[in-house]
Design brief:
The complex is a heterotrimer.
Chain A: E1 2-4, E2 27-31, E3 43-49, E4 52-59, H1 67-73, H2 79-84, H3 91-106, H4 112-140, H5 146-166, E5 175-176, E6 179-180, H6 186-210, H7 214-220, H8 228-233, H9 239-242, H10 250-253, H11 274-298, E7 319-327, E8 330-338, E9 346-350, H12 352-356, H13 360-364, H14 369-379, H15 383-387
Antiparallel strand pairs in A: 1-2, 2-3, 3-4, 5-6, 7-8, 8-9
Helix pairs in contact in A: 3-4, 4-5, 4-11, 4-14, 5-6, 6-11
Chain B: H1 6-16, E1 22-25, E2 35-38, H2 43-52, E3 60-69, E4 72-84, E5 87-99, E6 102-110, E7 119-124, E8 133-135, H3 144-155, E9 158-160, H4 197-204
Parallel strand pairs in B: 2-7, 8-9
Antiparallel strand pairs in B: 1-2, 3-6, 4-5, 6-7
Chain C: H1 4-22, E1 47-51, H2 67-71, E2 77-81, E3 86-87, E4 93-94, E5 97-103, H3 112-116, E6 123-124, E7 140-141, H4 143-146, E8 147-149, H5 150-156, H6 158-175, H7 178-193
Parallel strand pairs in C: 1-8
Antiparallel strand pairs in C: 1-6, 2-5, 3-4, 5-7
The chains are: A alpha+beta, B alpha/beta, C alpha+beta.
């Protein structure tokens, strides 16, 4: 972190990104792109009065790869591996969101077994994302990696499942327009069932380790409170919104895929602070385990790919579509405009982490520098998605 | 899907905001998501109506994005009265219409209180150069704050009324607007072993490309 | 009592630490490079070109149709068609690639080239220990390095290779009735004229 104390005349001061003039006693610190706790290359310019944060401006774009322009120059199928690399923790849900948008655009139907497989993989992704997030947040608070390694142990089991199904641990490139690429053998189903059955035991152990710890409670309760009105107006989605008490889960509202068939509850928080956001993720993991158990019972044999869809030279009809799903981080949407050719005319990703960062300044004002890291960790950002 | 159809929403919005010119832009294709095109002067008032109206309550702006349309010619068939074989009839004649280019901002609005949506609204700029200005919807929907900055950064549309309009993804001193269709990349050449298409064209200016067969001249499969 | 949460956490850690000596599930470190975890069959890394038989030039299945080059999203494949033709597994003369390069510093292992190939000529390999000392030419795999025999393909992906072989044998069997017909036609023609 670099620190400069402004003692120049107002007219001589170099332009800062803070907007208004800084007084003599405010110190501008760049919690810069290289930082072990900022979840990627993310920079925050904070103006501090002592330890209290008075202004905070996030700066990003360090991982900007202009994925949307690449999407305009690549065919629809060719963009699928690029969507893996948006939110690189949750590649299966990124694939599903893109496949859903193209299926909406072209009016393609998906066979039932493929829908079950999609739900299973999306909920497994949600499990490993929330577990790693809790691990990372505890590491940011100074827990020296122990909860992170326990979470990663479970994550490795789920990634091994992904590897034996799709060929790659993180960049799965598994969904296709009209179904899935590879079928899951009964062997794979047995392994997945065993892992899901053992998961609640891990969750109990994890909650014992983290959630009643006095240090965690002292550092996260009453820190970073977000009101429901501001959250709705700022377009916050995902566990961060539900921690404020707003009951909005795209799985229940839109009812995409086969989610209307499963019985699951949506956890809601009361206070909207960081501790509630932590608890959201812990409770959502239990609900995901429930959904997985139901889908393992209900899945039946059948085709996994719609036979009418062409793989090469896929040309959807002219039009536009916006498709969205409940990714582990929030609402992930894809907006596609097609002009009848093999490449989309406009390809837009609606990134949940990018929009959840709108309120970062509001959450951190009045808190200390140490709380900034905790609040940022609970927002759950991934720079691949923020910058695209 | 909303409780009201798009025509009803359009009608009520025109009543609530006098002088607003709203059109429905149809969306061909199976997705069935038509949108409302609103003129720039009344867009803020219409958006405020959409957010505050008790039946609609569209309080969640999910996505704000920009689209670039270059000058294009649109082929249309027009019914024209022509004399055919001595009888005056209505004939379908294909005409071409030149549509000047513009930049567009598209907003997807949902409702968290009533759980319906989407209602899609669009705003178009006058042209792609100095007239690329639009009113900002950030005072109404805070979620548009970063997304309008992104539209400004990548497309060059200035939003009047935005609290902090500056580049967000590119660095501050960057000059051009990368997502426009006529954007030309700077010539930052780096050697690449397998160039294709326009990368190959630009690479040819910097070095002589590899010889055509590159050592494979002697490879033929001997078969009698 | 204050501190109870921390004590509960310490109990969990102690259980994990002591348990790692007894339960295999708790000790998960693999001592690479002495031990290597086994790779699943579907694992994919970079592509390779299988060839049938012994001769990598004659048995190469690729006919240089350039579909994989066109569909590859980061455009890392570079193919130049040959001037002459050679017979493929069904006996029909086809072009073959004189130059087939893959730049593995660009390749993102998405497997789209395998999906779109109509001739089963490119498949995914499993080798991942591919570090080199240079950035550009050392990471460009040419046709010689990419051609590996079908026996190697069977050893790395047995079920998939068996399916591919069955499919190719079926396609060749469908073509079989044509050759026996021509000697019969030739045998029928002279008696007709004679």
């Amino acid at each position: 972190m670099s620190a400069t104390i402004q003692t120049l005349e107002p007219a001589e001061r170099p332009p800062t990104t803070m907007g208004a003039r800084l007084e003599g006693e405010l110190m501008e610190v760049s919690m810069g792109p290289q930082h072990p706790s900022t979840h990627g290359v993310f920079r925050m310019n904070v103006a501090l009065e002592g330890e209290i944060v008075r202004k905070l401006k996030p700066v990003f774009g360090y991982l900007h790869r202009n994925h949307e322009k690449i999407g305009e120059n690549t065919s629809y199928l060719g963009s699928m591996p690029y969507t893996d690399r948006l939110d690189y923790f949750c590649s299966m849900t990124n694939n599903w969101a893109y496949a859903l948008s193209v299926e909406k655009l072209a009016g393609i139907e998906v066979p039932e077994r493929a829908e079950y497989l999609r739900v299973i993989l999306a909920e497994l992704t949600r499990l490993q994302n929330h577990a790693s997030l809790l691990g990372f947040l505890l590491s940011d608070m100074g827990a020296w990696g122990t909860p992170l390694m326990y979470a990663f142990r479970e994550r490795e089991k789920i990634l091994d499942l992904f590897e034996s199904l799709s060929g790659s641990r993180m960049m799965c490139d598994y969904m296709r327009f009209g179904g899935c690429r590879v079928d899951a053998t009964s062997d794979w189903m047995e392994r997945a069932k065993k892992i899901v059955d053992a998961f609640p035991r891990f969750l109990d152990e994890f909650e014992n380790l983290i959630l009643s710890n006095e240090v965690v409670i002292a550092r996260t309760q009453e820190v970073g409170k977000l009101s429901a009105d501001l959250a709705i107006n700022a377009g916050i989605t995902g566990p961060m919104l539900r921690a404020c008490g707003v009951n909005y889960d795209v799985r229940k509202v839109d009812g995409y895929g086969l989610y209307p068939r499963f019985k699951f509850r949506v956890p809601l928080g009361e206070h909207g602070d960081t501790y509630d956001r932590l608890m959201m993720r812990a409770l959502e993991m239990r609900e995901s385990v429930g959904i997985l158990k139901q889908s393992f019972e209900q899945i039946a044999a059948g085709p996994i790919m719609n036979p009418k869809v062409k793989i090469r030279a896929f040309r959807p009809p002219v039009g536009e579509a916006y498709g969205r799903i409940e990714a582990p981080k929030g609402e992930l949407g894809f907006y596609l405009i097609s002009n009848g050719g093999t490449n989309p005319y406009r390809y837009r990703v609606r990134p949940p982490s990018f929009i959840n960062l709108t309120v970062l300044e509001d959450l951190c004002l009045g808190h200390t520098v140490a709380d900034v890291m905790v609040i940022l960790g609970s927002v759950d950002i991934v720079m691949g998605e923020v910058d695209r | 899907m909303t409780v009201e159809s798009l025509e009803q929403i359009k009608g009520r919005a025109e009543v609530a905001v006098p002088g607003a010119r709203i059109e429905i832009v149809p969306n061909p294709g199976p997705a069935n998501q038509p949108s409302l095109l609103i003129d720039s002067e009344h867009a803020s008032a219409v958006a405020k109506f959409l957010r505050d109206d008790p039946t609609l309550r569209l309080d969640f702006c999910s996505n704000a994005t920009g689209v670039d349309w270059l000058d294009r010619t649109v082929k249309k068939t027009v019914k024209v009265k022509k004399v055919v074989d001595g009888v005056e009839k209505d004939v379908d004649e294909p005409t071409e219409e030149k549509v000047p280019g513009y930049l567009e901002a598209v907003y997807h609005l949902y409702s968290m209180t009533h759980k319906h949506g989407p209602v899609i609204i669009r705003m178009r700029t006058a042209d792609r150069a100095d007239g690329a200005r639009l009113p900002s919807l950030t005072p109404i929907y805070r979620s548009a704050e970063f997304q309008e900055r992104e539209i400004f950064d990548l497309y060059g549309v200035r939003f009047d009324g935005h609290p902090d309009l500056r580049r967000i993804l590119m660095w501050d001193e960057f000059q051009d607007y990368p997502m426009r269709k006529d954007y030309r990349e700077p010539d930052d050449y780096e050697y690449e072993p397998t160039p294709h298409d326009d990368v190959l064209e630009r690479a040819k200016q910097h070095y002589t490309p590899r010889p055509q067969l590159d050592g494979a001249e002697n490879i033929t499969v001997q078969r009698q | 009592m204050i501190g109870l949460g921390i004590l509960k956490g310490m109990a969990v850690t102690a259980r994990n630490f002591v348990g790692s000596y007894f339960e295999k599930d708790r000790l998960i470190t693999v001592q690479y490079p002495e031990e290597r975890s086994p790779l699943p069959e579907n694992y994919r890394n970079f592509p390779f070109l299988p060839y049938d038989g012994d001769d990598p030039e004659a048995g190469l299945r690729c006919v240089a149709c350039k579909i994989c080059e066109k569909e590859c999203p980061p455009q890392c494949i570079y193919i130049i068609k040959s001037e002459d033709k050679k017979p493929d597994y069904m006996g029909k003369p086809q072009f073959y690639p004189a130059v087939f390069d893959i730049d593995i510093s660009v390749c993102m292992s998405c497997q789209i080239c395998v999906e779109v190939c109509p001739f089963e000529a490119i498949k995914m390999d499993k080798v991942y220990e591919l570090s080199r000392r240079e950035r550009f030419d050392a990471l460009l795999l040419r046709k010689g390095e990419l051609s590996k025999s079908n026996i190697y393909y069977h050893s790395i992906c047995p079920t998939e290779a068996a399916e591919v072989d069955a499919k190719l044998a079926e396609a060749a069997a469908k073509k079989k009735p044509a050759p026996p017909a021509s000697p019969a036609a030739v045998a029928a023609a002279p008696p007709a004229t004679a």
